[in-house]
Give the backbone structure.
Amino acid sequence: MSQLKILFPEPVVVGLAGRQVQIKPVQLRDFERFGRAAAIVIAMGSSKTMEELYAYAVVNGQLRDILRTATNLSRWRIWRLPAAAAVSLMIEVIRVNAGFFEKALVEAEKALAGAKSPAA
């Protein structure tokens, strides 16, 4: 039991218009909203232009949901981002958080594999 540890991802810092923006792991309370928003953005990403994606994300609140819950940007800053920067940041937030989840699954798999004892 002493070998167990919990994976707690560190925030990732990205540059945006000369400013450092912190991309944080999605918190449990925001997980469902983030998942819905990210799924829609990913699905639209392959078939829509950046402008169409931005317009949809703003109208339906996905942009705010993703950027408010997973960055250190204020609402004021989010609303004043250029469309291309907002979409790029939103996609980076999704990518980073997907990476956090992948790492957690790999760690869980390793822990479970180590916990299994061979039948004697």
Observations:
- The radius of gyration is 17 Å.
